[in-house]
Amino acid sequence: MKKWMVVFVLTILLAYPGLNRAEEERNDKKIVSTMDEVVVTATKTKEKRKDISNSVVIKDDLEIEESPAGSLGEFLANEPGVDWRTYGDYGGATQEIHIRGMSANATAIFVNGLNINSPSLGSADVAKIPLNNIDRIEVIKGSGSVLYGSGAMGGTVNIITKKPERDRIDLKAKAGYGNNDTYELSLENGMFLLGDFGYYLTGTRRETDGFRDNGDLEHNDVSLKLVFDRGDLLKINLYGDYIEREYGMPGGNPPQGTADFYVDGIKVYNDDSESLQDRGSDEDGHVIFEVNSRPLDWLGLRLRGDYTNMENYGYFRYVDFFGDLIGNKSWVTNEVLGVEGNINLTPFKGANLLVGVEYKDFDWENKGVNLNSNGTDIPATIVNTNEDLHTTGTFAEAQYRPCRYFKGLAGIRHEDHSQFGEENLPRFGIIINLFKNTALKVSTST
Q: Taking a C-beta distance cutoff of 8 angstroms, is the pair 344, 299 a contact?
């Protein structure tokens, strides 16, 4: 027995260096594969990770499916330099992503290249974004203002939704149930129907009573992507989604033992929630039309048009100085119309020039009315404020790699805003590749 044990141990010891080399080879291949991953968001063109001056995080649909995370923010929370913040412990609580310590209005969140940050708040509520619709996430840490405007000071998060694959039919259905009457149903289906035409459809319904009174949530979303794919010669995408949410807003936690409090038979708060009457709802819709073409090896063309409609409703009740239960209602509507065109030139090997122009028109409206003690509107208190703004951004970015060890880039954006005036935003970057699996990146921008 001891003899066989000695032989077994010796065999393991002799084989270990070979196993170690094999593991090193596997790790080396994995690093090379990571360095060669293609990223689109950082430069609006297809670039390998090692050729990008910013720090990049890439996540695919397999990682999302394997994660227990329930939201985009929770999924990205453990990435270095990415901070996930949730404002409340109830079903409809707002969730934000902060990159490199900057606030949410300095982190631009995109879906298929469309900025979904609220124009009136400057930030994006990532709790609304369904995970089952995501094919890929690209997080670019550091300023992306040259290509995406001033809202991308801290970084950008671009969510690329799922699309059909040739010779394959995707059909998935999921259902789950948990505590507090929480359940989720989701469905997705995608395929190529006729030749080069395909579609991908997703839908989700999520509902929970929440573990606090007035902490419930009803969430519904649907998305559809239509594609016409003729390869590099012509690609046309039409994407649309609609998100609807209704939720309670329980506020803070009162001290333990707080007695139920009523006004005219209406329960205002208890020991679980400081507000049992406050409610909110969101309705967001996006449409994106994009055409990509590379008619020549040295010429790439891209045209995108998009429309966004965001509506938020708030209902609030509170007790005034005289003990009456009064309140107010508010409606905030944001409409954004955008157009962008890019030309990508590759005059010779190692050189690339991107030139583009982007126009956005913002139509914002805020309506509010006070409520009397009966909960009905007070017409004399109606306030309606609206604003129409527009901005034009013209940008150019040049890249050049003279050899395998070095790459430089420089870019500038001229922003012309109808209210805030004009500003020039420069950017410079250097990438040094001393070794095959190592990249030293330095970048600065305004």
A: yes
The CA distances from residue 18 to 24, 29, 269, in Å, are 10, 16, 68
What predicted TM-score, i.e. pTM, was given to this entire model?
Answer: 0.89
Q: What total of structural domains would you count in the chain?
A: 1
Q: What's the token pair of residue 14?
A: 């002799």
Asked if residue 126 is part of any domain, the answer here is: yes
Write the DSSP string, 260-320: PEEETTEEEE-SS-S-SS-EEEEEEEEEEEEEEEEEETTEEEEEEEEEEEEEEEEEEEEE-
CATH code: domain of residue 77: 2.40.170.20
- Give pLDDT tens digits for 160-201: 999 999 999 999 999 999 999 999 999 999 999 989 999 999
CA–CA separation, 212 and 272 (whole Å) = 6
Residues 6 or more apart in contact with residue 97 via CB below 8 angstroms: 72, 73, 76, 82, 83, 84, 85, 104, 107, 109, 124, 126, 157
Q: What is the pLDDT of residues 211-242, one digit of tens each?
A: 999 999 999 999 999 999 999 999 999 999 99
CB of 304 closer than 8 Å to CB of 346: no
DSSP state of 255: P
CB-CB neighbours of 243 under 10 Å: 21
Q: Range of 432's domain?
A: 36-445
User: Is residue 58 situated within a structural domain?
Assistant: yes
Q: What are 355-410's pLDDT values in tens digits?
A: 999 999 999 999 999 999 999 999 999 999 999 999 999 999 999 999 999 999 99
Residue 162 lies in a domain: yes
Rg (CA), the chain: 26
Examine residue 277 and state whether it is found in any structural domain, yes or no.
yes
The Cα 48–Cα 39 span in angstroms is 6
Query: In sequence order, which residues have a C-beta less than 8 Å from that of residue 362 and are 6 or more positions away?
Result: 119, 334, 335, 336, 387, 388, 389, 390, 391
∠ CA(141), CA(56), CA(349), 5° rounding? 115
Residue 300 CA: distances (Å) to CA of 158, 162, 288, 342, 347: 21, 23, 19, 8, 11
